[in-house]
Specification:
The protein is built from 10 helices and 12 strands. By secondary structure, it is α/β, with parallel strands linked by helices. The strands form 3 sheets. A 5-stranded mixed sheet has the order 4-3-5-12-6, with helices on both faces. Helix 5 links the parallel strand 3 and strand 4.
Length: 308
């Protein structure tokens, strides 16, 4: 077989099953094929892509670093094929095509479902929502592998259209009944003694958080850094510290056992709805934009209640 030949769909499906199941045998059972057939298709795929997908130690296997990267890419390709099939069916039946939405973890958790619920009666039969990083949101929109993207700022607008933008402030999430569960803004000075739980991406809201600490000459005593504001909120609920979260997560994803407090320093947080400049889904975009605006305005209104 020629090296670097195009991978076939069946081999990619088998490869994904092996990664998910953890062994050739388990993948074969799940796919109802023989174990030798699975082994052969995986080896054929390795020949096609030109590198090892698995590290082998007798019967035990584990994806190589390149294998995991290829797995992530193959998942996107397979999802796109599914979407293509659904779009073909929509064209055949003269229905509204599927909608593909990409969103950061924060937006997926706190905004996507409420937004879609507002337009549930007019949604197409197939809606695909993928949770990815802000950088990949930009890439997916530019490559037109997604119709809509939801992300916090900053975001590069080249070849993107911002359909709606909203601004609020980061908030503190504290354990219910803790000494910090009381009215009034939470001073940043408490983090000199208390553990901080927050986002680790230094190029986005973490930069603004660090700047606020620097301006107030506060050095957090300890820290839990995560890629999800919801993880930070859960840490606060468990009494591991005080979380600084975006308002979409804090108010859009109800977590029992915590209270939301304003911070003494306003740390701005912006989020928006985006589409590719060449996106022609005007009617659908207008509907989603209106729903997005209403849900975002609810979050901002709830923040204003905290201030008062």
């Amino acid at each position: 077989m020629k090296k670097n030949a195009r991978p076939d769909i069946r081999s990619m499906e088998v490869f994904a099953a092996v990664v998910s199941c953890g062994s050739m045998t388990a993948a074969a059972q799940m796919l109802s094929v023989s174990q030798p057939a699975v082994t052969r298709m995986v080896r054929d795929l390795e020949t096609r892509v030109g590198f090892s997908l698995f590290e082998r130690n007798g019967p035990k296997i584990a994806p190589t670093e390149k294998g995991m990267k290829f797995f992530e890419e193959s998942q996107r390709v397979m999802a796109n094929l599914t979407q293509l099939t659904m779009r073909a069916h929509a064209i055949r039946d003269e229905k509204i095509a599927a909608i593909d939405i990409v969103a950061t973890p924060t937006m997926s958790a706190g905004l996507v479902a409420p937004v879609l619920s507002r337009i549930a009666d007019v949604l197409p039969d197939f809606v695909h929502v993928e949770t990815i990083s802000a950088e990949r949101v930009i890439h997916a929109l530019r490559q037109r592998t997604a119709d809509l993207g939801i992300s916090a700022f900053p975001i590069d607008h080249d070849r993107l259209r911002c359909l709606a933008r909203f601004e609020s402030s980061l908030v503190a999430v504290v354990q219910e009944g803790s000494p910090f569960d009381r009215p009034g803004p939470l001073p940043l000075a408490v983090f000199a003694e208390e553990r901080l739980a927050t986002i680790s991406n230094s190029y986005r809201i973490r930069r603004a958080i660090n700047q606020a600490f620097d301006e107030n000459k506060v050095v957090p005593a300890r820290e839990i850094a995560t890629n999800s504001s919801l993880n930070a909120a859960m840490a606060a609920r468990s009494g591991l510290g005080i979380a600084i979260c975006d308002p979409v997560t804090a108010l859009g994803v109800p977590v029992r056992g915590v209270k939301i407090r304003m911070l003494s320093e306003q740390i701005k947080y912006d989020w928006g709805l985006f589409a590719n400049d060449e996106n022609g889904m005007k009617d659908q975009l207008d509907l989603v934009t209106e729903a997005f605006a209403k849900e975002s305005e609810l979050i901002i209104k709830r923040i204003s209640y905290l201030v008062t």
